[in-house]
Amino acid sequence: MNAFDLSTLRPLLPSPLERVEDERFTRFGVRLLLKRDDLIHADLPGNKWRKLAPNLLAAAGRPMLTFGGAYSNHLRATAAAGRLLGFRTIGVVRGDELAGRPLNPSLARCAADGMVLRFVDRATYRRKARPEVLSALLDRFGDCYVVPEGGSNALAARGCTGLGRELRGVADVAAVACGTGGTLAGLAAGLAPGQRAIGIPVLKGGFLAEEIRGLQQDAFGGPAGEWSLDERFHFGGYARSTPVLDAFADDFEARHGLPVERLYVAKMLYGLVALAEEGAFAPGTAVAAVITGHPEPS
Questions:
Q1: DSSP secondary structure of 195-207
Q2: Residue 46: pLDDT band by 50, 70, 90 thresholds?
Q3: Which of 35, 41, 207, 298 has minimal Cβ neighbours within 10 Å of its Cβ?
């Protein structure tokens, strides 16, 4: 398969937009829309398609080396792209203590798709962008196209502008869960004047705003679009949850028949319900919740 011909993967674009009736929004005069980016592609859903596609074109079939944690959606999508398009993938995984253990379902899927997994200690992982760390990896694995953690670089941000353009004229506010910030950076840039984007970080730490500004500088030459972050809904950090969040996700699934991905989407939807109850959206506001992925089978 020609790695340049991504149309052979038959992505569903633009992704569907569904209105749902949910009294937690309608009682405040707010319309909730679900932007079903999870339906773009079975193996490269949502923002993974939008961020990976331009990088796949730039890689032009070269081996791709990238980074992620033990439950990284990005690693799974990259491995799947390698299988589908016939190129080699290397995943640098945070946590050398994981080496030698049975792979969790997420990493097992990566390995089944042909990804070579390289476990590194957490101190080395924090320095993954340093020239000496990258040089050592490339010495080991050869000439590779390197993609940052979460797939977030300037190309990825530009790829996510398509999401914003698809929401022009249909929503006043677009909300998305954030890991590394690339999707929000591009989403905001693609929206029309008068629209705004809200990011719900799934990690704690307060570092994401600076990352997004840097991505927009690299991708667009400066700030682009109106966006903000609400950092209250990480529930303890990445891959962390609580009984309250689990119950919320179960209830949302029962109400709307939507399988709710728990690492990102559940936190974003919970945050939107809280914001609606706080009066953050004026009556008549249309809020589009971007469903960036689907639950992985256990």
A1: -EEEEEESS-SS-
A2: confident
A3: 298
